[in-house]
Every structure is written in structure tokens, then in C-alpha cells.
Write a structure and sequence with these properties.
Blueprint lengths: L4 H7 L17 H7 L5 H5 L5 E3 L5 E3 L11 H5 L14 E4 L13 H5 L5 E5 L5 E5 L9 H5 L5 E4 L14
Antiparallel strand pairs: 1-2, 3-6, 4-5
The chain binds iron/sulfur cluster (SF4) (3 copies).
């Protein structure tokens, strides 16, 4: 049967809810919700311990805890193949207005953590600077989010313009 994502989203109260950050390689959201048995094997197996569960009992990645190393362990242990490591990861990092540098407090923590060198700072007036993220260079690993002292890193995907919930500081 042809799926109707909008209708399903409406019926399940999911309209306008930000897209959840599922483990890397997870099937598209609707297929993932159908396939995942909520066994928790991915979460207990993740070496970074960054997988927790949403209110529906489905696994979500929290990059404010630590970066994802894209090790594929979560995919390897997922018996129903709700996570398939052949698939990509299209989350990319950005920043919200609570960024310390944007508010005149010098901080380059995210830039220092970014192996991909995807973050640059553009100087502005009043001792402020704007963090600029190169979404082509960014791998979405979350090293910046885990390190950010003000929890200012946000994530977005091409699938959803809604930013994922603000990453919390650790
Ligand atoms: S790819 Fe590895 S580090 Fe990333 S969520 Fe899966 S198990 Fe954890
Ligand atoms: S291992 Fe697979 S089926 Fe089990 S909770 Fe994780 S995603 Fe769901
Ligand atoms: S998510 Fe990773 S690659 Fe992207 S800006 Fe942050 S540290 Fe760099």
C-alpha cells in the first residue's frame, strides 16, 4: 500500500515535531518506526554511549554527550536492520544565538574540536564574532556540540528545515 506520511504524521500527532536524530544509517523515519523493535541493542552497544530513547521508546542520538565516530556498531547489532550502515548521515551542524562569541565572549572551542575544519569565525563589531559552518565540509560528527560550553550547537538535515532540539551543554 502506498504510504501517506502526512496523514500518518497527523494521526500520530507528529506534525510539526522536529525530525528525530536516529542512529547513522537508520531507515527513513516511517520505515524506521516500523522496523525498530525498541530492543535497545544499539544503545547498549554504542561505544560512545550517545544513544538514548525518545518518549516512544525509539533510539535517538544525543551529540551533546559525545561525538559519533560513525563506527557502525549500532547498525551491526540491529537485528531487524532498522539501521543499515550502507546509508548516509545527513545531519549538519549550525549554531544558535546563544553562542558565546556572538555575544562578545571569545570562544573557539568548536573550531578547535572540528577535525574537518568546517568552522570559521567572522569578526564583527563590539568584540563579537560569528561562527560560520561549512555544511559541505561538516560531517555532522557532533564533536563541536559535545564541547560547546554554552550548548549552542544545533543540527539540521536536508530532510527537515526544523533544527533538532538544542544540544545541551555537558
Ligand atoms: S555509529 Fe558508533 S558512535 Fe555513532 S551512534 Fe552508532 S554505535 Fe554510536
Ligand atoms: S538495535 Fe535496531 S531494533 Fe533494536 S532498538 Fe536499536 S534500532 Fe531498534
Ligand atoms: S559536527 Fe563535526 S564536522 Fe561538523 S562542524 Fe561540528 S565538529 Fe566539525
Amino acid at each position: 500500500m502506498h504510504h501517506q506520511p502526512e496523514r500518518r504524521a497527523f494521526l500520530t500527532g507528529r506534525i510539526n515535531r522536529p525530525l528525530a536524530m536516529r542512529p547513522p544509517g537508520a531507515l527513513d523515519e516511517e520505515a524506521f518506526e516500523d522496523a525498530c523493535t525498541k530492543c535497545g541493542d544499539c544503545a547498549v552497544s554504542c561505544p560512545q554511549d550517545i544513544i538514548s530513547f525518545d518518549t516512544d521508546g525509539l533510539p535517538t542520538v544525543d551529540l551533546s554527550v559525545a561525538e559519533c565516530t560513525f563506527c557502525n556498531v549500532c547498525a551491526e547489532v540491529c537485528a531487524p536492520k532498522a539501521i543499515d550502515y550502507a546509508d548516509g548521515w545527513d545531519w549538519r551542524a549550525g549554531v544558535d544565538k546563544t553562542c558565546l562569541s556572538a555575544n562578545g565572549v571569545t570562544c573557539r572551542t568548536c573550531e578547535d574540536q572540528c577535525d574537518a575544519q568546517a568552522i570559521r569565525f567572522k569578526l564583527q563589531t563590539g568584540g563579537r564574532s560569528e561562527a560560520q559552518f561549512d555544511s559541505d565540509a561538516c560531517t555532522g560528527c557532533g564533536a563541536c556540540a559535545a564541547a560547546c560550553p554554552s550548548g549552542s550547537i544545533t543540527f539540521f538535515t536536508k530532510k527537515s528545515s526544523n533544527p533538532e532540539g538544542k544540544a545541551k551543554s555537558c
